[in-house]
Amino acid sequence: MGKLTIGCFASLVGSLNLDFAVKLSAAAIEKGHTVDLWVSGNGTMLSIKDQRPFKDYSHLEKPLKELMAKGLTVTACEACAEARGYNKDVTMEGFKRHSMDWYLASTFSADRVLHIGGE
Amino acid sequence: MATTKLGFIVQRPPYKSENPKLALTHAIATQSVEVYLNEGDTVTADIAFIGDGVLNCKKDQKAMDYYGLTSTEQHIKMALLVDINIWVCKEDVEKFGLSEDDLVLDAEEFGADMTVNVVPYSEISKKMEEMNHLLFF
């Protein structure tokens, strides 16, 4: 089995890029692969807890928690999050926060790196 | 002991999205990546500006004066200071009616030895083939 590192910079609501990244993570984990998901820039919005599941807006907290329980490692850029006021108190449980070098280190052992930019 | 080479390809113009700045800050973060890796292992970053992305390399940016923000130019200089290879597509620079004189080419004031390389696209393409992974910004 391989390791996939996904970086996503798009915000939670809007482009559906984060939805795609989470669905791809789910598919890879289902097949037995290891997945590191890194969110930076506006993508750090994914880390906020208590997302209310309106039908008109992407809400990924529930699938994300299920994936984390299955072994998904998901990490937010700490500086990007703090710059947006997404501090530790509003971060969902299990969501890691590191500096950008964590993402680069994850690519070291990755078989594939999929980088999905921001808006 | 191994090295993973990352190629950062910046295609978007400055200040219309966060992407170019994030490309530069992530590339600069290679400086501290080794804290997560085994001794002798490392990750390197090369940055290529192509298409609209070459506009990031325009010199004399005033982001600090107008917005109180570090300019993309300053980030490029920081990247040079930490010995990151930077490639700029010559053809795309010329398409905008610009020349090397219009671009940030060095960071001598910071003591950087590296300089920006303005080269044909074919050369950038060749460099990117050497990379383990490409990241598009």
Give the gist of this structure.
The complex is a heterodimer of chains A (about 120) and B (about 140). Chain A has about 120 residues and is an alpha/beta fold.
Descriptive account of the structure:
The complex is a heterodimer of chains A (119) and B (137). Chain A is 31% helix and 21% strand. Chain A is built from four helices and five strands. A five-stranded parallel beta sheet of chain A has the order 4-3-2-1-5, sandwiched between helices. The radius of gyration of chain A is 13 Å and the shape is globular. The relative contact order of chain A is 0.27. Chain B is of the alpha/beta class. Chain B has one domain (3-136): DsrEFH-like (Hypothetical Protein Ychn, Chain: A, 3-Layer(aba) Sandwich), CATH 3.40.1260.
Question: Span from first to last CA of chain B?
Answer: 29 Å
For the record, the CATH class of chain B is Alpha Beta
Q: Looking at this structure, what is the CATH superfamily of chain B?
A: DsrEFH-like
Question: In sequence order, what are the helices and strands of chain A, one letter per element?
Answer: EHEHEHEHE
Tell me the structural class of chain B. Answer: alpha/beta
Order of strands, main sheet of chain B, comes to: 4-3-2-1-5
* Percent helix range of chain A: 25-40%
Number of E-state strands of chain B? 5
Write the layout of secondary structure elements.
The complex is a heterodimer of chains A (119) and B (137).
Chain A: E1 3-8, H1 17-30, E2 34-39, H2 61-69, E3 73-77, H3 78-83, E4 96-98, H4 101-108, E5 112-116
Parallel strand pairs in A: 1-2, 1-5, 2-3, 3-4
Chain B: E1 3-10, H1 19-28, E2 42-49, H2 63-67, H3 72-81, E3 85-89, H4 90-95, E4 117-119, H5 121-129, E5 133-136
